[in-house]
Request: fold
Amino acid sequence: MTADLPANDAVNDPEAARAAMRDVAQEPGVAKPDPILVADGVARRFGGLTAVDVEHVEVQRGIITALIGPNGAGKTTLFNLLTNFDTPDAGTRTFDGNVIDKVPAHKIANHGMVRTFQLTKALSKMSVLDNMMLGATNQRGEKMWRSMVPFSWKQQEAEIELEAEALLDRFNMLHMRDEFAGTLSGGQRKLLEMARALMVKPKMVMLDEPMAGVNPALTQSLLQHVVGLRDEGMTVLFVEHDMDMVQEISDWVIVMAEGAIIAEGPPGAIGSNQAVVDAYLGSHHGEPLDLDADI
Amino acid sequence: MDIGAIFENTMRGFIGEQFIFFALAAIGLNIHFGFTGLLNFGQAVFMAAGAYGLSMMVVTWGLNFWVGVFVGLVIFPFILAVILGAPTLRLRADYLAIVTIAAAEIFRIMVRSPTFDRWTGSSDGLGGFATDFYDLSPFDPSERYFFDLFIGNQMWVVLIGWIVLAMAAFACWLLIRSPWGRVVKAIREDEDAARSLGKNAYWYKMQALYIGGVFGAMGGMLRAIGTQSAQPDNFITDVTFFVWVALILGGAGKVLGPVIGAAVLYAILNFSDIVLRQGVESNNIPDSIMSGTQVGQVRFMLVGLGLVLLATFRPQGILGNKEEMALDDR
Reply:
């Protein structure tokens, strides 16, 4: 089951991409050897609150990048800005060589970038199979007038159904194909959402908290699927709170705090980065508490 | 009690003209609400668009009947859908609800206004635009047909109405089981998910608003043809709510839900009407409880009671699926 996913080639070789990251400096906003997604000067303010103010960030092609940070750091806001689900007040975003600032959210998928959501968006009153088949792009039968002429799209529909079933099989969900997505458990919905995103045949998958609310029994299977995406040549960027997951599967970690990128580095080194420790624990830890200080 | 008359009247509600008009409008509303999740509280304005599109073309501008049919079914609903949808469909669902309920009243009050009398006939409305239609009738206007239920012209409207209704239900079925239908259902479930998968939610909602409006216009146009008049007060807000009742009764989100709902609604209305009327006439219902003139109101109370019972015991409607409905609560 690899036929309908991007084939590994020289440009998209994950091993090479990971190897290339060894020489990248561990500092915020650092340039990557082969960036697929670049954000420059992206800022988003809600009234007086600056939710995101990122000077520069690049995401390397073909690896798994984790975006972490304490609550309220602006991770999800940045995520929405990168996928055009929100419009920044300033800044430029480039995906795969194209500036995507003016591209509407629904066209981002056609560019090859697909996202999932923190609160899983399984389409409850549709079957698992329909959820999957929705993901396929350029469907002839999605045109209103043509939809009423079934023979003009039947063949494509059959092909899409085969693809959907193959993906469901890979995610061990084929036996649930005819059930309503609303009957699935939280973890199964995450799996379905990820599988559905693959129907778009993306170059890059953006996962917003893929582990949130997932039963521990399903965690390993989900992790393996994320790694599987990379091994097939896709780029993965995920937001996550679960540090175990970050350590286990990510190739590179970007840390946000208070709307800015404060550190970058490989997962093994990021935990000892002073800026990261400060962001998570507060910058005055280790110093003796000064009880007489003015507040 | 005259059992024959009761049965006849109930059947007339079950398969007659009123049922056809409202079933068509409810099929349109089902595409809006049942499948795409659009809250349209002004289906009456699309019905009025069909009625006035035809009658104004024929009476006011003297154009051919079939030109009027085209304008009423294709052009007027298109203009309406753009006016109603363009500003609201990017916003939350409630905005469309507000705008449609207002638009329906604005349209009705405008065509009723003496200012536009020479185009719309103001409160008298327009008439005499359907002769081309009745000229084609194979039925003798003085005869009764179909178990004596309908007189000639009525029979012709009912026959054409049934054909149109069957085609409309078939078209709706084709739309909904296609990939297009899958996209609009996805938009109903979660617009952002549909957008993340590359679907232009705004555009699909606009298409759904239009195509549902076309079915509404069919209902309104047939009503104008059946009564041989297009009158502003045939399109009051109550009309929209009858359409909603038919849809909810039958089951939103099922292709045949609105058809069954409209049939049952008009069967109940006609049945309670004739039973109450006969009760009053035969003095089985004393004047102290209800007079003949109050029958019309009381039957709506009964329908209201029936709806309360339905909402309590079968909220998914006649054809709906309880398990499917319960998924919302998870």
Notes: The domain at 14-122+203-280 of chain A is CATH 3.40.50.300 (Rossmann fold). The CA atoms of residues 127 and 180 of chain A lie 4 Å apart. The longest helix of chain A spans residues 154-170.
